[in-house]
Amino acid sequence: MDEELEVDPAYQKGFNGGYTLAKEDPELLKALLQSKNDHSQYFQGLKAGGREYLREKFKDELQRDREKIERSVDKNKEREKE
To answer: Buried (b) or exposed (e) across 46-72, using 16+ Cβ within 10 A?
Structure first.
């Protein structure tokens, strides 16, 4: 079944804002999240967007590290063959 979920526009706007703030000004996002304990859809989206950016950033860093290790291992194997 290919059902599309309806996302609350306020949540979506908060998510996008949270993602952008986490990328461009993480300290401001942190201050905003600490200053309010709001349960609105916008605020929940803001938190989720910030978490998503951090998840993607971590995943990218992990992938770069993995590739770096693989290149190092390949170089060592080449040296051993010589």
So the answer is: bbebbeebeeeeeeeeeeeeeeeeeee
Q: Which two tokens stand for residue 80?
A: 């051993």
Contacts (Cβ under 8 Å, ≥6 apart) of 17:
45, 46, 49
Residue 11 contacts residue 46 (beta carbons within 8 Å): no
Question: What is the pTM assigned to this prediction?
Answer: 0.77
CA 8 to chain centre: 21
Long-range contacts of 54-57 (CB under 8 A, 24+ apart): 54/22
> What does the alpha-carbon distance between residue 79 and residue 57 come to, in Å, rounded to a whole number?
33
pLDDT tens digits, 10-35: 999 999 999 999 999 999 999 999 98
Q: 4-8, 15-19, 69-73 — which is least confidently predicted?
A: 69-73
